């Protein structure tokens, strides 16, 4: 009986050590499953605004600044009100970013406000809305490039 207790204790300790000391790749994979603001790759993203595709350095700059933006909060979307977040009346024209996340096509709609950037992410049948804070992106889009 004591041997069974000793072996089970060693087994439980081994499992605890294995769970708490996961390799970096496993931790990154696990964290990415619950991440709201996904990191974009400039090579696989298609950026468009008002029907025109944005290419080159301007696209790379927008993607880089979006990746560096600070996540502020996730907005709850009531079932049935998804279209209000995808096509809001008072937010203006969005910057549309299309990419692939695994096997799924993901579309991000970036609405630029006076202070914040509101992102609506649509993939499969799911819609997620959240806001970002990025003074550099806001300055780049509004004042320097005249895009918005």
Describe this structure in words.
The chain is 39% helix and 30% strand. The protein has a seven-stranded antiparallel β-sheet. A hairpin with a 2-residue loop joins strand 1 and strand 2 (52-54). It is built from five helices and seven strands; from the N terminus they run ααββαβαββββα. The chain has helices at residues 2-20, 24-33, 56-68, 82-86, 135-144; strands at residues 46-49, 52-54, 70-75, 95-101, 104-112, 117-123, 126-133. The protein has 148 residues and is of the alpha+beta class. The protein is elongated.
Task: Write a short abstract of this structure.
With 148 residues, the chain is of the alpha+beta class. The protein contains 5 helices and 7 strands, in the order H-H-E-E-H-E-H-E-E-E-E-H.
What topology does this entry show?
Layout: H1 2-20, H2 24-33, E1 46-49, E2 52-54, H3 56-68, E3 70-75, H4 82-86, E4 95-101, E5 104-112, E6 117-123, E7 126-133, H5 135-144
Antiparallel strand pairs: 1-2, 1-4, 3-7, 4-5, 5-6, 6-7
What does the radius of gyration come to?
A: 21 Å
Which overall shape is indicated by the principal axes computed on the Cα atoms? elongated
Structural class: alpha+beta
Looking across the biggest beta sheet, what order are the strands in?
A: 2-1-4-5-6-7-3
Main beta sheet: 7 strands, antiparallel
Given as residue ranges, the uncertain stretches (5+ residues, pLDDT < 50) are none
Strand content range: 25-35%
Residue-averaged pLDDT, rounded?
83
Distance between the termini: 74 Å
- N-to-C series of helices and strands: HHEEHEHEEEEH
**Number of β-strand runs:** 7
List the total number of helices: 5
* Proportion of residues in helical segments: 25-40%
């Amino acid at each position: 009986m004591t041997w069974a207790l000793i072996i089970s204790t060693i087994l439980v300790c081994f499992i605890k050590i294995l769970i708490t000391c996961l390799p970096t790749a496993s931790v990154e994979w696990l964290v990415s499953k619950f991440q709201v603001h996904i990191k974009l790759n400039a090579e696989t993203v298609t950026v468009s605004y008002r029907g025109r595709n944005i290419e080159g350095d301007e696209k790379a700059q927008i993607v880089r600044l979006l990746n560096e933006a600070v996540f502020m909060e996730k907005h709850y979307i009531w079932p049935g009100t998804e279209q209000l977040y995808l096509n809001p009346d008072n937010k203006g024209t969005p910057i549309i970013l299309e990419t692939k996340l695994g096997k799924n096509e993901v579309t991000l709609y970036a609405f630029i406000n006076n202070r914040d950037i509101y992102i609506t992410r649509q993939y499969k049948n799911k819609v997620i809305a959240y806001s970002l804070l990025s003074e550099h992106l806001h300055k780049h889009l509004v004042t320097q490039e005249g895009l918005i």
